[in-house]
Design a protein that fits this description.
15 helices; 9 strands; disordered N terminus; alpha/beta
């Protein structure tokens, strides 16, 4: 296993992980077998709670982790920006009813999980280390995996670098990282503009001004639960955690790493379902659909019509049907 982790340090440059990779192997190996847990504090009034769970310390930070259902079938759900574990509210009961044990963390900087001020702590290599440490802490050798947005970016790195830990994978909105970095047009580069803005020093103040007017109109115009999002992110500490994902994984560095990399494209050996929604205002269809080029395992692509980037909220029944069908067809 340690050889696999060291290999991860060598091969993850496509997403510009080099600034934080040096300590990943040590962090994952040092994950405690018996992790301290505590009951989560109640959410402030007016803020929709994260999925109920406990705190687990992973590599020096406290993650809020929900653990529902029971049995040998286990699925890990990783959300993205700007959500919490509650973005999976429609999927969790469906998976539990189907006989799954469902593990759902608030990702770093969100909900009831710690919100470090240092953006480097949000680098994908660090987050990958946290998620492997979580599986180790819970004694889970292999699980199914679902990721959305930054949670999908994290999940791709998990299945590419630790394939033995994952049985099947469902990627929502985000394609294989090598395909994601394969830009065919100026339009595709422009489509990532919303990831550049958070790296600017005044971004937090801009987003907070006038009760989040700019943030609501231009950054999250299609989020189906924007009032819930703003009830959390109007807190400066929460907004900083949100911004730090883009600051810790800057796009310019990712483009440079992709241009400079002499490594062969990475093939995914974990069977993967790719989902993209027709109303996605952030990422384009081909970066998911053409991820088939980087698969050495079964691949399936499905397009969700009339749904925003947050397909799990807009079309929950369709998404649930696709997920359950994918995971049972092993």
């Amino acid at each position: 296993m340690h050889n696999d982790r060291r290999e991860f340090l060598k091969t993850a440059s496509v997403l510009a992980l080099s600034t934080t990779l040096g300590s990943l192997s040590t962090q994952v190996a040092a994950a405690p077998a018996n992790v301290p847990v505590s009951q989560p504090a109640a959410a402030p009034l007016g803020i929709r709670s994260s999925v109920p769970g406990k705190k687990i310390e992973l590599n020096g930070v406290h993650y809020h982790v929900a653990d529902q259902g029971s049995g040998d079938k286990v699925v890990l759900l990783l959300h993205g920006m700007p959500d919490t574990s509650n973005v999976w509210d429609h999927q969790i009961p469906a998976l539990v009813q189907a006989g799954y044990r469902v593990i759902v963390p608030d990702m770093l900087g969100y909900g009831e999980t710690d919100k470090p001020q240092d953006p480097q702590r949000y680098g994908l290599a660090m987050i990958v280390g946290d998620m492997i440490a979580l599986l180790d802490a819970l004694g889970l050798k292999q699980v199914d995996l679902i990721g959305h947005d930054w949670g999908a970016a994290t999940s791709w790195e998990l299945v590419l670098n630790f394939p033995e830990r994952f049985r099947r994978y469902a990627a929502l909105s985000i394609g294989h990282p090598d395909q994601m970095m394969y830009m065919n047009s100026i339009a595709e580069v422009k489509d990532s503009w919303y990831m550049y803005l958070p790296t600017q020093a005044a971004a937090g103040a801009l987003y907070a001004a006038n009760e989040g007017a700019f943030f609501k109109q231009f950054i999250m115009p299609t989020h189906p639960e924007i009032d819930e999002v703003w009830s959390r992110l109007k807190n400066p500490e929460a907004m900083l955690g949100n911004l730090n994902w883009d600051r810790g994984n800057p796009m310019a560095t990712a483009y440079l790493a992709a241009l400079d990399s002499a490594a062969a494209p990475r093939k995914c050996s974990v069977p993967t379902l790719g989902l993209w929604s027709s109303g996605d205002a952030y990422v384009w269809e081909s970066q998911v659909k053409l991820s088939s080029r980087f698969m050495s395992a079964p691949w399936r692509y499905e397009r969700i019509e009339d749904a925003s980037h947050w397909m799990m909220l807009d079309r929950p029944q369709q998404v649930n049907t696709l997920l359950l069908d994918w995971f049972k067809n092993a």
